[in-house]
Design goal:
five-stranded antiparallel beta sheet, 519 residues, binds succinic acid, 34% helix, binds flavin-adenine dinucleotide, Methane Monooxygenase Hydroxylase, Chain G, domain 1, Flavocytochrome C3, Chain A, domain 1, 18% strand, Succ_DH/fumarate_Rdtase_cat_sf, FAD/NAD(P)-binding domain
């Protein structure tokens, strides 16, 4: 028997939890999450959340900075909404049990590349963890919200009239499937950079929401824009993710040098270390390639020791564990896949092209980031558009839910998933994405990458038929779908713009267009 709820949320990061928190005023909410409640990209955010709350700042200035960083591709109405509604919502967030850093009784505001004002609200260097804990506490104290941990959303449920009316999920602990029906499904499944070999994202970031929405018929947009963070700790992986060294470290004055001590960023951009992320990542890539280096160095010498330890205690402690005292030594760093700018196409209210299906946060594409996201704008985007989605979703009524597709019944579920086989296919997929859809791309190579992803899909299908709904297999299938969508979008863009650089097309075309893919 299906379970009924009013609102169903997939994902317990910033977007999913804020949406659930808001919807609890209107009805019963179930939040599904595929691991522990706090495991999400949100939980690892370091730098902070950008909002124009400073005395010398305004939403207009924040809007202009965002648009300038977006290389002509930002949707201005979305940026206006985000920068205008952001400050009020961040104040509401601050009023929850979240301990943002303060200076003389006021929010301490950091600065990162591309921002012309100090506007990055943070909790030292563990901002995401503070937000995550504060929101989980708020959500858990609501009688109307139930949080289901270790529940993997397998597929969306589509009614005969084309609307989305629920989801199939798999309980990883009990091994049971559940069909959940609801007025609204909110996909807040976060990022997809876990499909790259080197990434700052935790392994849950496999693009499940994008793949599910695509299978159900939703449009996706601008998936070619993958942001590579310039500075992840070279050679260090923590539970499968590269350890991030926040851009805020450069914001406080740290410099990038080659191992022989030469500072190189001034040769690449007038803003040097504070240039937009795409420029810094490409400059590092170039230094690594031309000088045959394994890493470059992040030199914290210009920052006073006391300030380093106060502002970046977690980074200092983690580096210390790996043998680096950041008050004395430089940190070896390399770029890593960090953020997906593109995603499921939504309007200004979080609505996708399918009735009843909403998306917010990193899995959605609202258009605020254009071709290059400004640091610390993604937590803000997740908050603002989850909030707007909650306002729109409260007006939704139950639709007919005569189900078009039957779900994963026992007979179609084969549990003989061979983990070593799945892991090996998964590693091949990640290596393919790193090699063929990386920081510097070539059309010829991207086509090879697409072919390789198609081969991996065939290998998987030959081993496990499509009606196998085992989560490990389903997740790998999602990764391969998303990998193909990224490469397909990247091949369609015959220019270099922001994060997308193609050797055959080094220039930006005069007209900016979005890459919309329809199933
Ligand atoms: P997430 O926080 O990633 O949450 C996704 C949720 O969906 C998770 O709970 C996951 O378990 C769940 N999920 C996924 N698939 C399924 C499924 N099939 N079934 C059930 N559940 C599922 N941005 C900033 O603005 N400022 C920063 O300082 C910053 N620092 C960052 C540092 C790091 C290391 C990383 C990785 C990212 C950082 N970002 C930062 C980006 C930002 O953290 C994310 O874009 C943002 O947190 C995304 O929030 P979200 O709610 O969309 O998704
Ligand atoms: C960082 O702290 O450098 C990450 C900020 C972001 O990705 O917005």
């Amino acid at each position: 028997m299906p379970i009924q709820t009013d609102y169903l949320v997939v994902g317990s990061g910033m977007a999913g939890l804020w949406f659930a928190y808001r919807m609890a005023r209107h009805g019963k909410v179930i939040v599904l999450t595929k691991k522990d409640d706090s495991e999400s990209n949100t939980n690892y955010a370091q730098g902070g959340i950008a909002a124009a709350v400073g005395p010398d700042d305004s939403p207009e200035i924040h809007m202009n900075d965002t648009i300038k960083a977006g290389y002509g591709l930002c949707k201005e109405d979305a940026v206006r909404v985000m920068t205008k509604e952001g400050p009020g919502l961040v104040r509401e967030l601050d009023a929850l049990d979240i301990d943002f850093s303060e200076n003389s009784g006021r929010l301490d505001l950091g600065i990162e590349g591309g921002h012309t004002k100090h506007r990055v609200i943070h909790a030292a260097d563990t901002t995401g963890q503070e937000i995550e804990w504060g929101l989980i506490k708020a959500v858990r104290s609501s009688e109307n919200i139930t949080l289901w941990e270790h529940h993997f959303a397998v597929d969306l449920l589509k009614g005969n009239d084309g609307n989305c009316c629920g989801i199939f999920s798999f309980n990883r602990e009990s091994g049971e499937f559940t069909e959940i029906r609801s007025k609204v499904v909110m996909l807040a499944t976060g990022g997809l950079c876990g499909i790259y070999e080197h990434t700052t994202n935790p392994p849950i970031a496999t693009g499940d929401g994008v793949a599910m929405a695509w299978r159900t018929g939703a449009e996706v947009e601008n998936l070619e824009f993958i942001q590579f963070h310039p500075t992840s700790f070279y050679g260090v992986k923590l539970d499968g993710r590269a350890f991030l060294i926040s851009e805020a470290v450069r914001g406080e004055g740290a410099l990038l040098r080659t191992p022989d001590g030469t500072r190189f960023m001034p040769n690449y951009h007038p803003d040097a270390e504070m240039a937009p992320r795409s420029d810094v990542a490409r400059a590092i890539y170039n230094e690594l390639r031309t000088n045959r280096l394994d890493y470059v160095l992040l030199d914290l010498e210009p920052i006073p020791d006391k300030h380093i330890l106060k502002r970046f205690p977690m980074i200092a402690e983690t580096c210390r564990k790996f043998g680096i005292d950041i008050t004395r030594e430089s940190i070896p760093v390399v770029p890593a896949a960090h953020y997906s700018v593109g995603g499921i196409k939504t309007n200004l209210w979080g609505q996708t092209s399918i009735k009843g299906l909403y998306a917010a946060g990193e899995c959605a594409h609202t258009g605020v980031h254009g071709a290059n996201r400004l640091a610390s704008n993604s937590l803000l985007e997740a908050l603002v558009f989850a909030d707007r989605a909650s306002r729109a979703a409260s007006d939704e009524a139950y639709e007919d839910c005569s189900v078009e597709k039957t779900g994963p019944f026992e007979s179609s579920f084969h549990s003989m998933e061979d983990p070593s086989l799945i892991n090996s296919l998964c590693s091949s997929a990640k290596q393919t994405m790193w090699r063929y859809a990386g920081i510097v791309r070539s059309e010829k190579e991207m086509k090879k990458g697409r072919k390789r992803i198609a081969e991996l899909r065939h290998e998987l299908e030959a081993l496990y038929p499509e009606r196998n709904f085992s989560p490990g297999i389903k997740q790998l299938r999602n990764m391969l779908i998303v990998g193909d969508l990224i490469l397909r979008s990247a091949i369609e863009r015959k220019e270099s713009r922001g994060l997308h650089y193609v050797e055959e097309y080094p220039d930006m075309l005069p007209e900016a267009r979005h890459t919309v893919l329809k199933p």
